[in-house]
Amino acid sequence: MGKALDNVYKHQSLAYKYFLYLISVALIVFFFPKGGKFKYEFQKGKPWQYENLYAPIDFSIQKSGDEIAQEQLSIRNTKTDYYNFDASIVATLKSNVQKELEQLATSNAYSARQQRNMLNTGMAVIDSIYAKGVFENKPGSNTIVLVRNNEAIPMAPNDFIDLEGAKRRVSLHVSRSNVVDKAGLENTVQSHMKPNLFYDETLTESALQQELSKISYTRGEVSEGRLIIAKGEVVEAENFKILNSLKEEYESELWQGNNYYYIMLGYTILVALVLIMLFLFLKRYRNEIFKNNNKVTFIFFNILLMVLATTLMVKNNESYVYGVPLCILPLVLKNFFDARLGLFVHVLTVLILGFVVPNSFEYIFLQIIAGIVTILTASELYKRANLFISVGQITLIYIIGYFAFHAIHEGNLENIEWILFGVFVLNGLLTLFAQPLIYMFEKLFGLISDVSLLELSDTNSKLLKKLSDKAPGTFHHSLQVANLAEAAANEIGANAMLVRVGALYHDIGKMEKPTFFTENQVTNVNPHDDLPPRESAKIIIDHVIQGIEIARKNNLPDRIIDFIRTHHGTTLVYYFYKKQQELEAEVDENDFRYPGPIPFSKETAILMMSDAVEAASKSLKNPTFLVIDEFVEKIVKGQMQANQFLNANITLKEIEMVKKVLKQKLTNIYHLRVEYPE
């Protein structure tokens, strides 16, 4: 058991990658829509590329979404509205009218016959008008059913009467009567009239849903063994509908019973193969990234993010699948790593999504082309205009590609879905979100982008301003080293901006005791003259440790701190070491040696060479080209003999190129000027 645990600890990095791999495969398969995959790919307007297709089973021809929507709209437009008849309102109305008429007759001293005639006329008018009922407002529908005493009674449109119409009918009926007080009767009835027909929303909606449920989603049957389409035949409108119906039937039937496990197994194997390709690529061509679990996690996180966004869109509305800004993936990866890795990961992600998106060939083609355009056009993203230009080109590629595929499928440019242009524009706008996304990834995964490097290279930043004030000589030295290192990095294809920023901050530890370093001494007084060589060496060596502490307090990225840690490697403070040897016979070199580590990248190796050459060049009495040539060769050779570049992935050829640049730059700096006459 103990031995097994020891093996786990020894290979914990590899174990983590296995875990990450298995989790990623499981999550991607989990994200996939739960449905089988039809084994034939077909597109409207293109020839059938397979053998003659006969119906393998009996199935129904499904109506299109537009056809069903049209039927639903027709039913909604002709729906029946239900109204409830409230008899209590009529009873209340009659009671109130009777009371008021009796009062009217009493006050006017009408005879019993006249009173009876007015009352009978009023009741008859009410019965006549309220026989069918009175609406508050005339209904908009022509199909009305009156619910009265639990009986549904259809109403004709000419029976529709609202409250105003009812009052007019009262006036008409009363004017034709022979009552003694027509105005009094009319006013009395009209003043108490109320609508008694009320819209029954629940019953109406229930009836509507019942009618909608009767819609047939199929139109016709296809019998088993019937020829659906022959090889080479163009997929026309009717065949296209039949093939889509077969596809839906096949996929719904497939995702059942034992088939479920076989489909899951198939998805798992294919996704696993794709992710294995990614691991092999990283192991073979990006080994430094493969060894860094944080960077590997970052890559897999971005793949999972894109797969999740796309599968969610497919599940909800597959028509808008192009609204997912997939090109953010190569943009982000190119920004943090390189173009080749960004494109490779993008292609693999598109292949995974090809399992679940509709028209997979069209999708894969457009997304790969858009990814290539992204990689080729997106450079120097810290310049805002470049991102907008790149996004504009990506959007244009989508639009042009859609036009091309539409022309192939339809044979014309009619029936273009203009809404898709809005989707492509939305895709472009969402791609602009790459900038804030890069910033979030920097904070989340501890990575550093060109935008951050540009911000750090600002000499007016708080930390560099402090360096300029406290140690102006060191600040000037750092600027010179930055120029030398940047030129050398450009020559060998290293990250020039990264090495420049590293050079600007590599000596910030000298701010603690600036006068102990010759470049900051403004007088001839040297504080080292009063100190023993061992103590002086310790002060010099400590500027590395103090620089790391200052960098961490100011939240500098780890990649910049690496330059502070490695710019002296494990070299010897040779001057004080020799002075100590003059005082004692045996001297421990470890007391005069920097703690390291030695450079472990091209960029940190370039900084070590540039820093040593620039600092030592101040001692040249009469710098000529030959003197500078020998001087640079001597310094770099000494570093190589001290094995300072063993861990850096820099070749001898690249070191020679760096030396060449350093010689050229120093020659330009120390060139002789003509003597001006007085």
In short:
The protein has 678 residues and is mainly α. Helix content is 63%, strand content 5%. The protein folds into 3 domains: 2-35 and 258-445, no CATH class; 76-211, no CATH class; 450-669, Hypothetical protein af1432 (Orthogonal Bundle).
How does the SSE layout of this entry go?
Elements: H1 2-10, H2 12-31, E1 53-54, E2 59-62, H3 65-77, E3 81-85, H4 87-108, H5 112-129, E4 144-148, E5 151-155, H6 163-175, H7 182-192, E6 197-199, H8 201-213, E7 218-222, E8 227-229, H9 237-254, H10 259-285, H11 287-290, H12 293-317, H13 328-336, H14 339-353, H15 360-377, H16 384-410, H17 419-431, H18 434-445, H19 450-456, H20 462-470, H21 472-492, H22 496-505, H23 533-553, H24 558-566, H25 574-583, H26 602-617, H27 625-641, H28 652-669
Parallel strand pairs: 3-4
Antiparallel strand pairs: 1-8, 2-7, 3-6, 4-5
Name a few traits of the molecule.
mainly alpha, elongated, 4-stranded mixed β-sheet, 678 residues, Hypothetical protein af1432
Instruction: Determine Rg (CA atoms, Å).
Output: 44 Å
Stretches with pLDDT under 50, minimum 5 residues: none
Number of strands: 8
| Average pLDDT metric | 83
| Number of helices, counting only DSSP H or I runs of 4 residues or more | 28
Choose one word for the global shape: elongated
Strand content: under 5%
Structural class comes to mainly alpha
